[in-house]
Amino acid sequence: MTFVPAGTTARSPWALEITPEAAGWTYCGLRTLNLSGETVTFHTGSSEMLVLPLSGSCLVEADGERLSLRGRSSVFSDVTDFCYLPIDTEVTVTGEGRFALPSALATRRFPVRYGPAEKVPVEIRGAGQASRQVNNFCAPDAFDCDKLVSVEVLTPGGNWSSYPPHKHDTASAHEAVLEEIYYFEGGPGYQRVYGGHEVMAEVSSGDVVLVPRGYHGPSMAPPGYDLYYLNVLAGPAQERSMAFCDDPRHAWIRGTWEQQQIDDRLPFGRV
């Protein structure tokens, strides 16, 4: 399973369900949930999780805590609040909208926590047609977890992100070993993965690309179509890291950004 079209892994109550076992790896998982006012109860088991509103709002109850997530109207309208769910926890979610639940196999148990939208670090990365927005809501230096790392990337139509192509499949002082999930909204767009794991897929809302190894990028947003993706990453290292290695053929691209302007369509919405 590499390219996962929308709907192909649906299993009630989940609109999308990717477990480490289904992906053929060890750590990363992702579920999405579509709610119209009903309540869903589930158990986190051996995975730590987040509840991230893609659209709409919800109430999350776990470990005696009641967390109200105000959410947003869409992934392009705003940065959202979110919450953290520890391993071995029964959870109830009630709401209206669509919600992503990134997950990672974990061993340490952290408390249930609320992540306010105002504290999410927002980064404008690249320049020119490589300008994109990164919402680092669960990056290693932004939110504490055991294994889970997750960020959102928003790419204006006509731009490229995940560029230059990069990888994180070798342990070194400059690179971490990470499994990675790309979950898409908007589009259509295109995602490339190569170097031992080959994908060239047209992607749109609800589609997923899995990256167990190899270079990934670019993620391409054709003119007229903004593209969003949620990255979920996890790996075996004790310290969480997003360290990567550029494809050496294309690493020079970073040096061109100093002479280019940042796309004035960024940032998306209120930040």
UniProtKB/TrEMBL annotation:
Record SUPFAM superfamilies: RmlC-like cupins
InterPro entries noted in UniProt: Deoxy-glucuronate_isom_IolB (IPR024203), KduI/IolB_isomerase (IPR021120), RmlC-like_jellyroll (IPR014710), RmlC_Cupin_sf (IPR011051)
Keyword DNA repair applies: no
Major enzyme class: isomerase
Keyword match Thylakoid: no
One MF term in the entry's GO annotations: 5-deoxy-D-glucuronate isomerase activity
The EC number(s) this enzyme carries: 5.3.1.30
Pfam family, one: KduI
Keywords recorded for this protein, A-Z: Isomerase
Domain of life, per lineage: Bacteria
Family annotation (NCBIfam families): myo_inos_iolB
Record protein name field: 5-deoxy-glucuronate isomerase
